[in-house]
Amino acid sequence: MPSYDYPFNERIRTLLRIEDLFLKALHHLNGDSEYNHHCALISIFQILDVIDRAELKADLLQELDRQKIMMRNLRGNPSISEPLLNELISEIETTAIELRSNASKLGQCLRDNEWLMSIKQRTTIPGGVCEFDLPSYHFWLGLGSERRSSDLNNWLTPLKPVNVAVRIILHILRGSSATSRLIAHGGVYQEMLGGVKPAQMVRIEVADDLNCFPEVSANKYAINIRFNSLEVSQRPRSCDFDVPFVLTLCNL
């Protein structure tokens, strides 16, 4: 069942972008071809651009510390597995220590690598990393998959605590949610949102056999969903039939 996440604020939007880029980087890193490793490096460069916010590290640490306190308060709850809870708390503590152990800006060791930055600068130009533009990069791509994998792992390692922190926070966000089975009549659904604890993200799931996808306009006060069908030769069209879907409102 396809799912679509829609963030209500810039902080969650940034976390979702980081999650997406790490998934792509790790996927291509596990490949063997030079094209896989080129895509992995491009994803690493994009991660650097997204995390180039001075407050991101502080935001991650603050949220990890807050979640650690909340998880500790759940100890003794009979409806929660104590071993799984302790494992999550331990992972939060380890990740926070790793983030704090590096006093420099996130990804600074990669920004200090002049060769990598010369490649990154060219990636903004369409076709800018051709062999005649960057012969040293072309040489690196021809060194063999083991050498390329080793280098990529070395470049990605300083960023892995960020990946783990984002994964933990989004895992808790998606798990701390209220789920409803609803119907969008004529492909349209609207709902006013309220409550003491406003939602920070909405997740929409649609059955595989339905040829449609949601477009969402939402904030912490209201959500508007319009389901569209896709024909690749023209613009998406609004669905004119009732669409059953699962709506999950997520908050931390």
Textual characterization of the structure:
By secondary structure, this protein is an alpha+beta fold. The chain has two domains: 3-169, YacF-like (Orthogonal Bundle); 177-250, YacF-like domains (YacF-like), CATH 2.60.440.10. The protein is built from nine helices and eight strands. The strands form two sheets. It has a four-stranded antiparallel β-sheet. The chain is globular and about 55 Å long. The mean pLDDT is 90.
Percent helix, as a range, is 40-55%
Distance between the termini: 24 Å
CATH topology name of the largest domain: YacF-like
Mean pLDDT: 90
Order of helices and strands: EHHHHHHHHHEEEEEEE
Topology:
Blueprint: E1 3-7, H1 10-29, H2 34-50, H3 56-73, H4 82-101, H5 108-111, H6 114-123, H7 135-141, H8 145-156, H9 160-175, E2 177-184, E3 188-192, E4 201-206, E5 213-218, E6 222-229, E7 237-238, E8 243-250
Antiparallel strand pairs: 1-4, 2-8, 3-6, 4-8, 5-6, 6-7
Helix pairs in contact: 1-2, 1-9, 2-8, 3-4, 3-9, 4-9
Keywords:
8 strands; 252 residues; 2 domains; four-stranded antiparallel beta sheet; 9 helices; YacF-like
Short description:
The chain is of the alpha+beta class and 252 residues long.
